[in-house]
Predict the 3D structure of the following.
Amino acid sequence: MAPRSPITPTDRALRAVLRQGYPDNFTDRAKAIFASAFLTVHSVRVRKRSLKWNYTFGLGLITLYLFVLYLVSGVLLMFNYIPSVDKAYASMLALQTDVAFGALIINLHTWSGHGLVLFAFLHMLRVFYTGAYRKPRRGNWVIGMVMLMVTLLMVFTGYVLPWDQNAYWAVAVGAEVLAQGPIFGEHIRTLIIGGNEVGQATLTRFYVLHFVVTPGLLLVLTGMHLWRVRRDGGLASGPDDLELPSTKARF
Ligand code: HEM
């Protein structure tokens, strides 16, 4: 009788996560990926060309990591920020001077926000120039567009929160510009600033938009975006494999 191979701690850990042994063949790898919520964003097979660093330049992933950094630093800022017109600016100053690593957290948040916009845009250019916006990835291109709009809204609403002169005048001037629009101009202005004058209602609106609505939307859209990358047959690897006959994507 052949000796039974001992189960190593690594095997046990893998079984706990994957509910099966180490997947060393194609079928087991596919099963492991379909069965795990964590692995499910990975394709079972990938095209060699799409793995080359100079195909994606890692731009989508860099954008994703910046988003995570933006979220984590934002949550840390929430512990000290006070969304009140009298206290917001003072709470930001206190964060820089009285709170350990406060200035570092503010800077991480500011720069990851700037980076997010820049890299989302560069990623969009990469997708455009490799032609990956075409069928069957059209739906994901549209999702990406919406993500870019929501990202811009998230970063702009954050700009207002320190409630300094820059913030106040950015909202005041922006609202007046919107008010000049036809028919609904005045209504849109009132809706955005929460009344006739820029004040506490405005700050509360921007606070909720920045901390809850836009990041929540982006989290959901990011999940859909990554799921679509896989559903559309993994990354496109060039014009020759853009129209995959096997993909069932409807738009
Ligand atoms: C805003 C944050 C965004 C994040 C976090 C994000 C993340 C990603 C990631 C990680 C990938 C796979 C790896 C890669 O291609 O580098 C990807 C692919 C893709 N993204 Fe984005 N993306 C974002 C914005 C956008 C935008 C603005 C567009 C276009 C308007 C877009 C369209 C696409 C498309 C079409 C693919 C599939 C590309 C292919 O198959 O070659 N994404 N995205």
Remarks:
- Residues 200-231 form the longest helix (32 residues).
- DSSP finds ten helices and no strands in the chain.
- The CA atoms of residues 30 and 44 lie 6 Å apart.
